[in-house]
Write a structure and sequence with these properties.
329 residues; five-stranded mixed β-sheet; 11 strands; 33% helix; 18% strand; globular
Length: 329
Amino acid sequence: MTAQPIDTDTVTTLVESACAAPSLHNAQPWEFRYVRNTGVLHLYADLARTLPRTDPEKRGLHLGCGAALFNLRVAAASAGLEPVVRLLPDPNDMNLLAEVQLSGTAHPDTALARLRPVIPCRHSSRFPYRDVEIPVAVRERIFGAARTEGAQLLFPSAWHVQEIVELVRDAEGREAHDPELRSETVQWTRTEAVDPAEAADGVPAEAFGPRQLGTTAPVRDFTAGRPMPQRGWASFEKNPHIALLGTEHDRPADWLRAGQALQRVLLQATMDGLVASMTSQPLEWPETRWAARDPLSAMAHVQMVLRLGYGPEGHPSPRRPVAEVLDIV
């Protein structure tokens, strides 16, 4: 791959946008390396930020890195560049997740570029949503967002939504009896407010949302049994809008595509005035992941459970400085 090199300020801006992507426990498990003389940006998995007990296959890591890759594509298109992506380009280095050739173009992808303004606006909202319908036109746009990235999105029937809620409750019970899993959750979440200057990753207490009065919505509880006296209680929507994001196959390349589809869905939803939260809890256990699949659909492998609706914006989670994740050579 060869191309006219992009200036380092532009590369830094692109990576800053990439790093606004969601990731499991906000671990931000990515690293970037830009090679000036080729104009290629490499995306690597940061193995120091894995969650061995929660994510032993690194499926969640790939989803997060895929989401970061999609943000990078959006930012590049907005800058008038054409990002040409190769997933898993080196079979001898599975930590090299993608190569992105960056070059100027007279015809940038306007569909991607129009999503750029909402990248900094997207935050997981773990608060109650309003019990109102999502218009058909909005649903169609987010369906299309998933399809464009080679994934499938569906809203399961009401009875399966209740089953998803039960699966989340079951997964929380399993986590409560798994000390190693609880320890990982504690490592990456904070139950007390922390100076933003001292925190660059993990889920802050302000982003937990309130405890549920009853369990009607699939929202992950990050307390892991720790006391949070300052955290209140609230009734959540009785009829949550749950969407399943899935793929035909279940390999690392599919996880990266699913991560890109996930972020495209989230940005499109944000543009349409929706808020969202995600949970992979029932997908982290082989015994419950199969049950998350809607038996009435053709979706083979569920990659993420999303909750969408109209409600308050989520609290921003911290981000690592670009200097920590970008190497320019």
